[in-house]
Design goal:
heterodimer, A: mainly alpha, MetI-like fold, 2 domains, 13 helices, disordered N terminus, B: mainly alpha, about 0% strand, sugar transport (chain A)
């Protein structure tokens, strides 16, 4: 995963230092073991790694309520999860969210980045604006969209004068998931665009000018030159947004629809939350957590394969 | 700019379509960013009826009563104080843990250093959210359930991987000779860290602080679950959604409350715009 960050900064000399020849003082234990890292490591182990390990343990326990004593359950939780229709609805919702949302987000972010990098009139304003959603918390974003999407809100206020019938966007099972995806796109595209633009800024202007004189139009320039050059970095941004969609969507769902109507917006991440804190079916919840963990790894691997460097 | 326009003029119209589409897209997108903003700012000065009837009209009077109602109704003043306390304490704790660790990892020569470094780097992969329930159990086990204190302990752990990766790569750029000269003069490790590394690392530290400020201030699920409903302890992000009521939300009040939660972030953003953009870019993560 350091590769992930290194790919993002092609110009930093990550390991520029060469091991200095050491004649004196070589290889004492103090030198080899980074002792000052110990407090951070312990802290990290207790508060982050510990709970994740516990998640794997609880997934194999029967724990039907906070106050009951857990008992070993083997694979029972997984059997229950896989036999549960709600789980499959949630899986389908998460799949739609990612298969539809992620390509749109990355595609549009790339085009925006391409546009900003050409330094057209107003590109500074655009760069400033693109950052706005990255600053706003999930609750604030959700509350603004809650106001806009309500039956008397801004969106319907726009549609009505056009003679279109408004909708209860968040309460209608056919549009609720779309609304959640729209909120995520709103908060993710600009930020991804700024990240990708930081990479495209490094593309040599001479090559671009030459291609332009050879008659390449912007569309060709974007997809045939800039995309391949930035491909591996776009993969990094895609992975970050993938993880954020997969896991953080739980907050947006919780704030806007609580999984409803009729499970239409229950994603896997939200299902973990609901089973743990609403229905207190803890074994089930953590079994879904394990499933999500595996999906996360598989997805990262798939994105890496699709968008790995071509050169 | 002028050069580019000249090139564009030489191309036939058909070839400029790409530029026109991406330009149109870009400005439509900008509008999609600005309109919600405009809407919610003007709404925070209006009543429900005004919002419903003419959503985009400017408010007739700049009446701050929605703000006072929001602040009273959700106890936002106290919530801001809680958020500030939690954020500042967690930021300090993050630096206290991450600085020595990064220093040690940047100087480590053996295998152990590499292993520890990759343990932290792997942290990007950990979906800590899925482990929310075990974290909740940990809070209970430590006797810190439903307290800000536990969140202050937890947030630095979530920020350590990124902070350490950034600070370590920063400290690697410092020539070893500097440090060796200092230790020849009899400086201890911690003195070297304080007197040689810290002054040089100020930009790296600023990056880490800004990045973590955003994610700590904006944190929602952890504070919601771990601090719970207690109005005396809850943070601003947890308090805000309580303005939304199932039946009959006062949208003016809700939007005023939302604006109120954004003010500190905007203050920081306008003052430190450049630094903050740089921080977000090198962070490459979103809360």
């Amino acid at each position: 995963m350091t590769a992930l960050l290194d790919a993002g900064r092609p110009d930093t000399t990550g390991d520029g230092k060469t091991a200095a020849p050491r004649s004196r003082r070589r290889g004492t234990i103090r030198d080899r073991f980074p002792g000052l890292a110990l407090p951070a490591l312990i802290w990290y182990a207790v508060f982050m790694i510990g709970p994740v390990v516990a998640m794997f343990v609880i997934a194999f326990m029967s724990w039907p309520g906070m106050l009951t004593t857990p008992t070993p359950a083997g694979l029972d939780n997984f059997a229950r999860v896989f036999a549960d229709e709600t789980f499959w609805t949630a899986t389908a919702n998460s799949a739609i969210q990612i298969v539809v949302g992620l390509p749109i987000m990355i595609g549009l972010a790339f085009l925006l980045a391409f546009y900003v990098v050409q330094k057209p009139r107003g590109h500074r304003v655009l760069r400033y604006l693109l950052f706005i959603p990255a600053l706003i918390s999930a609750p604030a974003t959700a509350m603004v969209f809650y106001a806009m999407l309500n039956p008397d809100g801004l969106v319907n206020g726009f549609l009505r004068p056009l003679g279109l019938e408004g909708n209860e966007w968040l309460a209608d099972p056919t549009t609720a998931l779309g609304a959640i995806i729209a909120v995520e796109l709103w908060s993710g595209i600009g930020y991804s665009a700024v990240l990708i633009a930081s990479r495209l800024d490094g593309v040599e202007t001479e090559i671009v000018q030459a291609a332009r004189l050879d008659g390449a139009n912007d569309w060709r320039l974007a997809w045939r030159m800039y995309w391949p050059i930035a491909r591996d970095f776009i993969g990094v941004v895609a992975m970050l947004q993938f993880l954020s969609m997969l896991f953080n969507s739980a907050q947006t769902v919780l704030l806007l629809t609580q999984g409803g109507p009729e499970n239409a917006t229950t994603t896997l991440a939200y299902l973990i939350y609901r089973k743990a804190f609403v229905e207190t079916d803890l074994g089930y919840s953590q079994a879904v957590g394990v499933v999500l963990f595996v999906i996360g790894l598989l997805g990262m691997w798939a994105i890496r394969r699709t968008l790995r460097a071509t050169h | 700019m002028a050069q580019r326009a000249a090139v564009a003029r030489r191309l036939p119209l058909r070839d400029r379509i790409g530029s026109i589409t991406s330009g149109t897209l870009a400005w439509i997108y900008a509008a999609l960013l600005v309109i919600p903003f405009y809407y919610f700012i003007v709404s925070s000065f209006k009543t429900n009826e005004e919002i419903f009837e003419s959503p985009l009209a400017l408010p007739t009077t700049f009446d701050f009563s929605n703000f006072t109602t929001a602040i009273q109704q959700a106890d936002l003043g106290l919530a801001v104080a809680n958020s500030a306390l939690t954020t500042v304490a967690a930021l300090v704790l993050t630096l206290v843990l991450a600085l020595p660790a990064s220093f040690a990892l940047a100087r480590a020569r053996g295998k152990a250093g590499k292993i520890v470094e990759s343990v932290f780097a792997l942290g990007f992969l950990i979906p800590s959210f899925a482990a929310l329930f075990p974290t909740f159990l940990l809070a209970a086990a430590l006797g810190l359930f439903h307290t800000r204190t536990f969140v202050i302990f937890l947030l630095p752990a979530t920020a350590l991987p990124l902070s350490i990766v950034i600070l370590t790569s920063f400290m690697r750029t410092i020539p070893r000779e500097l440090e060796e000269a200092a230790s020849m003069d009899g400086a201890s490790s911690l003195q070297v860290l304080r007197q040689v590394y810290l002054p040089i690392c100020v930009p790296g530290i600023a990056t880490v602080l800004l990045l973590n400020f955003l994610s700590f201030w904006n944190a929602y699920l952890y504070p919601l679950i771990l601090i719970g409903p207690d109005t005396a302890q809850r943070t601003i992000q947890v308090a805000l959604p309580t303005l939304k009521v199932d039946a009959g939300t006062d949208y003016g009040v809700l939007m005023a409350g939302t604006l109120f939660t954004l003010l500190p972030v905007y203050l920081v953003y306008t003052v430190l715009q450049r630094q903050m953009q740089r921080a977000l870019l090198s962070g490459a993560v979103k809360g």
